[in-house]
Amino acid sequence: MLKTVLAGTTALMIAGSALAFAQQPAANPGGERDHWRPSQADLAAFADARAAGLKAGLQLTPDQEKNWPAVEQAIRDMAKARGDRAAERHDAARSADPIARLRLRADAMTDRAAGLKKLADAAQPLYQSLSEDQKHRFAFLLRSMGPHREHVAEWREHRSHEGGAPK
Questions:
Q1: Dist. CA 136–CA 151, nearest whole Å
Q2: Nearest CA to 67 among 77, 54, 81, 50?
């Protein structure tokens, strides 16, 4: 009798734990994953921090500082456009239409290209006034702010909606 009760209890515990693991977590409204997404204010603050870091790393002279406002504005404009694209990507990710997503990605590439051209045009006078040491720092610091991070975000977003696990 004791063996029967023990065997029954063990079977219930195993079955109960299997059912607990089989349950899916409750979905948020809209079926979104539960993680933090930066707001437009967050993105603006991060862009300001990146621009301030670039400026501090360059250690600009008073003559070079005259060319800085155009560079800073181009960085801010690119950050705002990046935030806008992220919002569009988030909205479009709910769409099952792969053609619409392709068009959105193509438009995003065009927008990024225009932003990079604007940054290059704005940074050229500043860059020409930099010393060799400042030019090396400029290249390193600009690369660390680069758009490659956005491509990774797009890839993760794309993978998560295809059923692949984001890494």
A1: 25
A2: 54
